[in-house]
Automatic annotation (TrEMBL), chain A:
NCBIfam families: AA-adenyl-dom (TIGR01733). One of its GO terms (biological process) is secondary metabolite biosynthetic process. GO terms for molecular function: phosphopantetheine binding. InterPro entries: AA_adenyl_dom, AMP-bd_C_sf, AMP-binding_CS, AMP-dep_synth/lig_dom, ANL_N_sf. Residues 8-363 form the AMP-dependent synthetase/ligase domain. Pfam families: AMP-binding. This is Amino acid adenylation domain-containing protein. It comes from Longicatena caecimuris. One of its GO terms (cellular component) is cytoplasm.
UniProtKB/TrEMBL annotation, chain B:
It comes from Longicatena caecimuris. InterPro entries: ACP-like_sf, PP-bd_ACP. This is Acyl carrier protein. Residues 1-73 form the Carrier domain. Pfam families: PP-binding. It comes from the Bacteria.
Length: 504, 75
């Protein structure tokens, strides 16, 4: 199996009439899906005479978005999915970076697509999903494909304000999907309940583990995550048994007491990643679904999705942090200290990754790429790249990796090196705390805690700080906030907090 | 009703909550807003909205939401 297309066809030949994808009012079998993807691919081949070209897709999370993605891959090109809710300016910035000659959109987004400042061709999904399939054209494209060709470019926000496009190859996706399927025993009986949008790296797990194993994937609408009863009802009705969500999605269901009224009994595997999992939320899930497997996954987009994982195998108090565990099979992690040597014992250092989950680098950003994809400093004898994650970690007494913070969240305060994440974990455990985040005022030398929650007093929070943290880690200022700002991926938006703080 | 409108207007200034009947479908309120509204209602009216009542039809329209609060207060 050299690429994603072969992986899809393999499952299609085993389970042609099995339901592959589901939405509230719609579903599609493997066979029907492959036919639609091939039809779109033939149209793309007609429009783009060469291979390995970017094709941008402006379609909301849906079956047709996935058909379009696979259509692009069948044509020997690679895709970028745009968030349909992102500002037009940002869409144009991405288009400007990629300079694609083709953009695929559907009726729902057509007006936006037409308004974009874009010189290439527009392809309407609905008009082309039944286009005539020319197998010979598909075959000639297939012959030229190699596994290191890109499958997609995924954009994340860059520190300069210009989005960074991470180029990920077929080989990386295949290696990653194999690890997922093997580690979590994903097979044709798996029914995934997908939460994450397709422009977010976590969706790679849902999509490609499904494709590889012949599983089924239910695309849960975003709206359901505001209404736990609707969400849980849908999960029960459709016998969803595996989920991979961001912690805030698991949190909304738990906080509104959804699990008490409608426990989704079929759910046997609960995986999460994307941000630090509040242990309090995990414990609520574990109380209601005690037999499920829970796993904390960790990794950046630059290693496809994940490089370390921890399957929860013991109890954790609400104020204890979860480990990120150990490296995935076929993946290696190195903890490097600032001086470039390996951390020993429980020394903290930057987590670096080796192996096949690696991305090819950033699109049109040679300099940025060479800053984080570097020669392995521990092995100078032949060319070998490692990826520097920018995340600070250390090993605990069980030999499991603990995430401490981003390199830029690590502060020096009163002479101590402090991880703001550690303060957040301790503060989050307070009764009534819904969300909290720390920032550091480098001028005043204050640790600022933003908190959101009911019936919380500064006094109660300070008492908790005193009980749990050494005095140099106590926040200096407590600011109640009605609503924590979140970015497009559902993570706490720390840049917004800093801006809020700077604005008084 | 005035109290509920005040909560909402404070949260999302500039939205005409009396007129809008599709607060959810039109994307005016998102999931974090819903959580916040439920917490504010709990604070101000001392009623806890049961999860089964947290439905898009109710949060689409302030009148329906208020009717629910009144019903819960009587119970």
């Amino acid at each position: 199996m050299k690429n994603i297309v072969e992986m899809l066809e393999n499952s299609c030949s085993r389970y042609p009439d099995k339901t592959m994808l589901m939405e509230p009012e719609k579903s599609i079998t493997y066979k029907a899906f492959v036919n639609e993807a091939k039809a779109i691919a033939c149209k793309i081949i007609e429009k783009i005479p060469s291979q390995n070209q970017p094709v941008v897709i402006l379609i909301d999370k849906s079956i047709q978005a996935l058909v379009s993605m696979m259509g692009v891959l069948y044509s020997g090109n690679y895709y970028t999915i745009l968030d349909v809710k992102m500002p037009v300016e940002r869409m144009e910035c991405i288009l400007n970076t990629l300079q694609p000659s083709l953009l695929i959109s559907d009726h729902k987004q057509w007006k936006t697509a037409e308004k974009l400042n874009f010189k290439g061709d527009l392809l309407l999904y609905e008009e082309n999903k039944t286009y005539a399939i020319e197998e010979a054209n598909l075959l000639s494209r297939r012959r030229k494909m190699i596994d290191t060709d890109p499958a997609y470019v995924l954009f994340t926000s860059g520190s300069t304000g210009i989005p960074k496009g991470t180029v990920v190859s077929h080989r990386s996706v295949l290696a990653y999907a194999h690890w997922v399927v093997e580690t979590f025993a994903i097979d044709e009986t798996t029914i995934f309940g997908n939460q994450t949008p397709f422009y977010f790296s976590m969706s790679v797990l849902d999509i490609y583990a499904t494709l590889l194993s012949g599983a089924s994937l239910y695309l849960l609408p975003k709206l359901y995550f505001s209404f736990p009863a609707k969400l849980l009802d849908c999960m029960i009705q459709n016998k969803i048994n595996t989920i991979y969500w961001v912690p805030s999605a698991l949190g909304i269901v738990a906080n509104l007491k959804g699990l008490e009224v409608l426990p989704p009994k079929d759910v046997k595997k609960v995986l999460f990643a994307g941000e630090v999992m509040p242990t309090k939320i995990l414990n609520i899930w574990r109380r209601h679904l005690p037999d499920a497997l829970y796993a904390n996954l960790y990794g950046p987009t630059e290693v496809t999705d994940i490089c370390t994982y921890y399957i929860v195998n013991r109890d954790f108090a609400d104020d204890e942090a979860l480990p990120i565990g150990n490296a995935c099979n076929n993946c290696d992690v190195i903890v490097l200290k600032e001086d470039g040597t390996q951390a020993k014992g429980d020394e903290a250092g930057e987590l670096c990754v080796r192996g096949s989950f690696f991305a090819n680098g950033y699109y049109d950003q040679v300099e940025k790429t060479s800053e984080v994809f570097i020669q392995n400093p521990l092995q100078p004898h032949y060319p070998e790249l490692i990826y520097r994650s920018g995340d600070i970690v250390k090993y605990n007494e069980y030999g499991e990796l603990m995430y401490l913070s981003r390199k830029d969240f690590q502060i020096k305060h009163m002479g101590y090196r402090i991880e703001l994440g550690e303060i957040e974990t301790a503060m989050f455990a307070i009764e009534g705390m819904d969300a909290c985040a720390c920032i550091y005022d480098t001028q005043a030398k204050w640790i600022i805690l933003y908190y959101q929650g009911k019936n919380l007093t500064e006094k109660a929070i300070l008492e908790q700080a005193k009980a749990k943290l050494p005095n140099y880690m106590w926040p200096n200022k407590f600011i109640p906030i009605k609503r924590m700002p979140y970015n497009a991926n559902g993570k706490i938006d720390r840049k917004a907090l800093k801006a809020m703080y700077a604005g008084g | 009703m005035e109290k509920l409108l005040a909560i909402l207007e404070d949260m999302k200034p500039g939205v005409d909550f009396k007129k809008e009947k599709k607060l959810i479908e039109d994307g005016i309120l998102d999931s974090f807003d819903i959580v916040e509204i439920i917490a504010a209602i709990d604070d101000e009216f001392d009623v806890e909205i049961p999860v089964m009542e947290v439905q898009p039809e109710i949060f689409n329209d302030v009148e329906k939401l208020y009717a629910l609060i009144e019903r819960l207060m009587e119970e």
